[in-house]
Structure formats: structure tokens, C-alpha cells
Amino acid sequence: MKKLLLSGVKPTGTVHIGNYFGAMRQFADLQNEYNSFIFIADYHALTSVSDGALLHKLSLDVAMDYLAIGLDPRKATLFLQSDVPEVTELTWIFNTITTVPYLSRAHAFKDAEAKNKEVNVGLFDYPILMAADILAYGADVVPVGLDQKQHVEIARDTAQKFNRIFGETFNMPEPMTLEEVKTVPGTDGRKMSKSYGNTIALFAEDDEIKKAVMSIPTDSKGVSEPKDPDTCNVFALHKLVSAHDLPELRDRYLNGNIGYKESKDILLKNMIAFIAPLRERRKEIARNPEEVLKILKEGGVIAREIARKKMDEVRKKVGLGLI
Description:
By secondary structure, the protein is mainly alpha-helical. The protein folds into 2 domains: 4-184 and 288-318, HUPs (Rossmann fold); 204-283, Tyrosyl-Transfer RNA Synthetase, CATH 1.10.240.10. The protein has helices at residues 17-30, 42-45, 52-68, 86-95, 100-103, 107-114, 121-124, 126-136, 149-166, 206-214, 233-241, 246-255, 260-286, 289-318; strands at 4-9, 35-40, 76-80, 141-143, 174-176. The chain has a 3-stranded parallel beta sheet with strand order 1-2-3. A two-stranded parallel sheet has the order 4-5. β1 (4-9), α1 (17-30) and β2 (35-40) form a beta-alpha-beta unit. α4 (86-95) crosses α8 (126-136). The chain is globular.
């Protein structure tokens, strides 16, 4: 039997190429190899989205994004996280065996605390909800970016602790990251993130792509001066969309035979060539939202049945329910 692959995207804004190269591309690439369960993490989104109508829109948008990048509902199970309430029940059970000091070491919480943000309980407990997402379906592999790898480690720790206390119940999931795109760089060289304002939208129009590419900061070296491709923000994005041009571009950088303006022009051309077909496919899918909702509903039924069976086992082992 195929191993089970599980992952998801939080519907909190426009999907960007960092989401695609960091994780989403793997969903489509691996759907033939694995029994894939791909969800829209709308429970997770509640930690930052407090507008019901907006969350509905963003969730449907992500579903359309999934289909536009090539996910096939005949091969992968696509569903809404909230269509499987068993994961929140499992989260509570995991909470009762998880300590506050342990969760205090989670990267997202530490980052928010360092920035003096007021952290809601949902954000603090985010890793445990993610552990429930992973373990409820018996996931074997979880495609994640490097910054999310800790969440899979927390899921493994939680599974081991539950198994130790209540008996063998959960298997050990493994994180899966693409070595060459562990962390996708943004237009400013930092990790691509909506919070940094350094993203390029995955389905952007040509003028939006041009604005983003031309705004990439560079140093002041002239055309004939040698440049270090490994520290150049423009070249970092070439690695994503300029595979055929990469060896020649590297040589030209090192030999002082290219200016940043020309490098940006080449990047713009290649970025548009990459995004345009995805964008047109996305527009086609958006013309039939009812079909997208049908796909999600059918996927939710499949996912919930698996989670229900696991929760029957969990409830029995922890002592819940007398009938």
C-alpha cells in the first residue's frame, strides 16, 4: 500500500511563490506516489482572521489554488480542516499530556513573544493542533518548509508520549523538505513571507510581477564589476525559475559581464513564463466554484471517516465514554 502523505496551507492571504516552491509543488509532484491528504487549515487561520466572510473566501481561494497547481481530486483527498471536528477533540486530549514549558519552546510562540505581541491561546497551542492534524490520519510523511519542520518534530514527540502512556496508537510521521528550497527567499533576501511584504503572488498579473522584480534591492556594482551570485537577491530568485539560464548567469555574475538591470529583465521574463499558465488555469477553475465546493465536501467525508476510526480507538484508551 502507498504511504500516506499529509499537509495543508493556512488560508490567511494570497498564496505566493514561496508557498508553492516550499511545499505546494510537492503536493502535486507526489500525488501519484503517495496516498495524499491535502487540507485547508481554516482552524489554524482563526488565530489571525476574525472575519467569517473573509475566511470563507480565503478558504475557497486556497482550494482553487490547489487545483490550479495540478492537484487531482481523483488522486488526492482535498478537504477543509474544519470538516473533521475530530482533530479539535484530539487536540484537547493531546493538551492534557503536553506541558506549558514544552510548548513555550515553539518557534512561532517565541518569535511572537520576542516582538512583544499579545499571544492568544490558539497561537500558543498551534503546534498541538498541527500534531492532531498529522496524527489523526496516520500520516507517514509531511511535506514542509524548513521553518515548519519543528511542528513535525512536536507531532512525533506527542505521538511517542501518548503511546508511552496509553499504549501503541500513533505512528511516527517524517518531515519531507526539498533540499534546494528549504527556505524560499523573498524579494529582500529574507524568507518570503506576507508579514515581511516581500512576496510575489503565485497567480500575479504581469504588471504585479514586474513591480515586485524591479523593486528587488541590489548593491551599487556596475555592469563590468564581478558580483557574488550567492549573496544577490535577484539571483536567489533565478534559482527558482531560471534553471536553463542559471549556469550562464552565474558565469556572467562572476566575470563581471552582467548588470543588475539585465538580470532583473531576465528574471521578469522567466517569472512571467512560469506564472502565466498557472494564472490562466486558476481563472478557469474560479468560473465554477460549486464544483470546487463539491470536491471539498467529498474529500471531507473521506478524511472524517479515517479520523473517526482513530478517535474511537483514542477515546477507548484514555477512558472516555461509558456506552
